[in-house]
Amino acid sequence: MSGSEEFTLVIGATGTTGSRVAARLTAAGRRVKAASRRATPVGGSCPVRFDWDDSASFEGALEGVDRVYLIPPLGARDPAAVMLPFLQQARTAGVRRAVLLSSSAIPIGGPAVGQVHQALPGLFSEWAVLRPSWFMQNFTGNHAHARTIRADGTIRTAAGDGRVGFVDAGDIADVAVHALTEAQAPNTDLIITGPQALSYGDIAAILTQVTCRTVTHRRLTYAQMRDRLAADMPVEFAAMLAGMDRAIAEGAEDRTTDTVQRLTGRPPRDFRACAEREMGRLRS
Question: What pTM value is reported for the model?
Answer without folding.
Answer: 0.94
